[in-house]
Amino acid sequence: YPVTMSSGSIYGIAFSDGFVELSEELDIVEENTTVPFYAFTERARSRGLTIIGSNDPLLEYMLVKTGLVYKSRLLNTGSTGGWTAVARGEADIAPTHLLDEETGLYNKPFLDKYGLRGRALLIRGYDRLIGFIVKPGNPKGIKGFEDFFRGDVRIVNRTRGSGVRVYIDINLKKIALDRSIPIDRVNALISGYTYEVKTHTAVAHAVKTEKADVGVAVGYVAELYGLDFIPLTWEEYDFLIPRSRMDKLEVREFIEKLRDLRVSEFKFAKYYRVPANIGSPRD
Predict the structure, then answer these.
(1) I want to staple 116 with a disulfide (CB 3.0 to 4.6 A). Which of 52, 120, 158, 233 is the partner?
(2) What share of the chain is helix, strand, coil (3-state, %, to 5)?
């Protein structure tokens, strides 16, 4: 897995074991392709905790604040990638905020959809506020997802499989159905739909550098980049853990630190809220 952190982050190196060498003619590397790997040390550092899934600034803050960052491998694959990694036995913890279109619930319905009922637990995390990231003063007058279909608006999208991307696509699908637009035409009608980035900070950076007029991300990054934020919804950000890993020392430590999380100490705490049952299995 490639390691991706917040844009401009200098501590991403702490999560890395080394680097791979790719030919400059390559545009993409298919899964399971063998490539040359060069470790930073003679023996790649052993990581006690493998976290694969959704990207979140508060999670990164917690790992650094508690020192767990030095025991962890953090891989931002999006929520869907986290569920797949747990199902394949690759992840100790998978951060997730997947919205189920049929029930309107976060995360829980996917235990059955991924065949993980009884094999994995959802540990309650926290809520975070996501919304539109726009330029100061909102010069394009963005008010809702309907504006994504305007010819004068270019968006920055999240990668397929991420929880935010799922949320975006659900809302765009509703509008397309209301307007009798074929679903397979949506990507052609929305400028920037195929412009995908992996992290929340990358969304803000795209808007800041005028590569896009709007994107969806956690409110924290709008303030970080001096942009405007239009709230949309509170997401439920939880942690999927295989039952077979629940007794692992580093997993137990992670859950303990999660229960002790003091969001008020985070500079951008207003974009997060902590439920009373944080760190407990979801019913």
Answers:
(1) 120
(2) 35, 25, 40
